[in-house]
Write a structure and sequence with these properties.
alpha+beta; five-stranded antiparallel β-sheet; 4 helices; 12 strands; 24% helix
């Protein structure tokens, strides 16, 4: 179990509203302070049966503390504790460390959001050893392949869900490991979430609703320590998720 804390000095001062009168007040940040949030995360230390380099995890959803910040925090830790030195083909020594990447599971709410907006593009990505053909000399080696599809029909409404379903299955069958949807939501904002598609046996296997649970006491916006009740409930969610993947 991990607890992440993030503060942003550029975030607007938090405001509070009186529920009956509607009167609001703003609490100003002090000098050197930022609006702070925290999120619990639990990681399964047993690697995925389908990929020994993949570990399942559950992260508390907190506005303002995105997957990007959590990924960067973990990468900073890995860089410090798991670094190692290596020698290249010329005998020169260099520093290396593992690189983390997060892939989220698709949620039904995403399809509803795309259906209300407009799908623009689908990008399929394959991370693997693709062979050396870019350079005649062994100086570089391609590690990623990208395939872009421009949506020209069934860009919104019910048809877009069937289209995304069909294309994801096709991309997975062709060996692509990730898919990125580029779409404009009903508010006119462009989004481009990326999801792992490599481990699902069928489409339904990697579509899941976000889970909710009740805690024993109010959960603060920024917790100072790991909450035991949150830890237990997140761990139970993760175990059910892992068991569902194995079924």
């Amino acid at each position: 179990m991990l607890l992440f804390q993030h503060s942003d000095r550029d975030a607007a001062d938090p405001s509070f509203s009186e529920l009956v009168t509607g009167e609001t007040r703003t609490e100003q940040k002090g000098l050197g302070e930022g609006v702070a949030v925290s999120a619990h995360m639990v990681i399964d230390l047993t690697p995925s049966a389908r990929n020994p380099h993949v570990y399942q995890a559950v992260l508390e959803h907190v506005p303002g503390l995105t997957k990007y910040y959590v990924e960067q925090a973990l990468q900073s830790v890995v860089r410090k504790v798991a670094g190692y030195r290596f020698a290249d083909i010329n005998g020169l020594s260099g520093q290396a460390y593992p690189v983390l990447s997060f892939s989220t599971r698709l949620q039904e709410s995403l399809f509803a959001e795309v259906a209300k907006g407009q799908l623009n593009q689908i990008v399929f990505i394959r991370h693997e050893q693709l062979g050396d053909g870019f350079d005649n000399e062994p100086a570089v080696l391609p590690k990623e392949e990208t395939y872009r599809l421009q949506a020209v029909a069934e860009r919104s409404g019910k048809g877009v869900v069937a289209l995304m379903n069909r294309l994801i299955k096709s991309g997975r069958d062709k060996g692509y490991t990730s898919a990125k949807f580029v779409f404009t939501n009903e508010d006119g904002k462009t989004k481009q979430p990326t999801f792992d598609i490599s481990r699902a046996e069928n489409f339904e296997a990697f579509v899941a609703k976000a889970s909710q649970f009740e805690v024993e006491d109010d959960l603060a916006q920024c917790e100072a320590e790991i909450r035991a009740d949150v830890s237990r409930k997140l761990d139970a969610l993760l175990q059910r998720h892992v068991a569902g993947l194995a079924a």
